[in-house]
Structure formats: C-alpha cells, structure tokens
Design goal:
Number of domains: 1
Number of helices: 7
Largest sheet: none
Number of strands: 0
Strand content: under 5%
Length: 137
C-alpha cells in the first residue's frame, strides 16, 4: 500500500475534522450526545464531566494530527506520533462500548471505531516506513 502525500494529508484532515467535531458536540450540546448515544439514561454532572474528559482526549488527538499535518513531510516521525495517538483511543473505545448501559444504533456504530483507529495507525506507520526507507541512501 503506497499512499501519496496528498492522500496522507486528506486522511489527516478527515481525522482532524472528526476529532474536532466530537468535542464541540460534547461541550456545546452534551445532552444531544447522550440522547443520540444512550437514550433513557439519567444524565447527571458526573456523566457530563466524563464526557468532557473524553472531549479533552479528542481535542488532543486533533492537535497531534494537526501538528502531523504541518510537519510530517519534513520530519516523518510525526507519523509515528499520530499512530500512537490513534492507538491510544483503541482500548477506551472498546471499554466504552462494553460498559455502555444503554445502547442505541449509534452506540453500536462505535464497534467500528477501534478498527478505524487501528487502520489509521497502520496507515501512518506504513507511510512512515515508506518515507524513511525511500529516503535512505
């Protein structure tokens, strides 16, 4: 699998967009999050606090990927940093799905999230390897 720099940038931009949309929804409309993901759950301040904590993680992912977008061509190691950031979301996604007390169709859609994060990490590591081995003398 050989992705062009333009394709890598497009993947990063898409991931940044998603990872910025999630915290915006969590912060601006937390009740919407709970209505879509967990109908019939009594939401209290602790639920909202943990959602905002998740928003911090998503924001961190977006910032790492934004830095990667800006710098990976000059320093390909940023692709490995982005891969690690994506991998940091795999287990939280699995645990969240397993622990969810009320699942909607949207919640079940999260089954793909860990797989997507693994796939993105694979893409970034592969792009790093291709970039560094092709640059070697």
């Amino acid at each position: 699998m050989q992705l062009s720099p333009r394709a890598i940038n497009a993947i990063l931009i898409g991931a940044i967009a998603v990872d910025l949309a999630l915290p915006i929804i969590a912060i601006v409309a937390p009740q919407t999050w709970f209505d879509v993901m967990h109908r019939d759950v009594s939401v209290d301040a602790l639920h909202r606090a943990f959602l905002i904590r998740g928003a911090g993680h998503w924001t961190a992912l977006a910032l790492v990927q934004l830095a990667t977008l800006a710098y990976w061509r000059r320093w390909p190691g940023w692709l490995l940093i982005a891969a690690g950031a994506r991998l940091s979301d795999v287990l939280p996604d699995v645990f969240y799905l397993a622990a969810s007390p009320s699942r909607t169709l949207s919640t079940w859609g999260l089954i793909g999230a860990p797989l997507l994060n693994l796939a993105l990490a694979f893409v970034f590591v592969t792009a790093y390897r291709r970039r560094t081995t092709s640059a070697a003398p």
